[in-house]
Amino acid sequence: MALSNNDIFKKLRVAHKLRDDDIIEIFKLVDFKVSKSELGAIFRKEGHPKYQECGDQFLRNFLNALIIHLRGPMPKKKNK
Questions:
Q1: Are 27 and 63 in contact (CB under 8 A)?
Q2: Which in 24, 26, 68, 75 has the greatest CB count within 10 A?
Q3: Is the dihedral of CA 16, 21, 25, 31 positive or negative?
Q4: Which residues of 16-28 are buried (b: 16+ CB within 10 A; e: fewer)?
């Protein structure tokens, strides 16, 4: 059984002990706007009427922002 994007996002949220406000701030690191209601819809159970599937772009932006949050921005390369 494969994990869905929603499952991966939920597991990352729990593993890093993130609240909705934390996730919104992390998304801001990559200029991706998300609301609390969108997050609530993604974290709902699959059968719920307001459930929303977490798309690839949404998860990709979160992962990129999480890297910046945990490691900091990439250092600028020097021209030779």
A1: no
A2: 26
A3: positive
A4: eebebeebbebbe
| Amino acid in position 24 | I
Residue 75 phi, psi (nearest 5) = -70, 150
Q: Summarize pLDDT for 13-70 with one digit per residue, the tens.
A: 999 999 999 999 999 999 999 999 999 999 999 999 999 999 999 999 999 999 999 9
Task: Return the DSSP state at 48.
Answer: S
Place of tokens 């945990």: 70
Q: How many helices (H) and strands (E) does the chain have?
A: 4, 0
**What are the Cα distances from residue 8, in Å, to 5, 35, 46, 53, 56?**
5, 19, 14, 12, 11
DSSP code, position 49: T
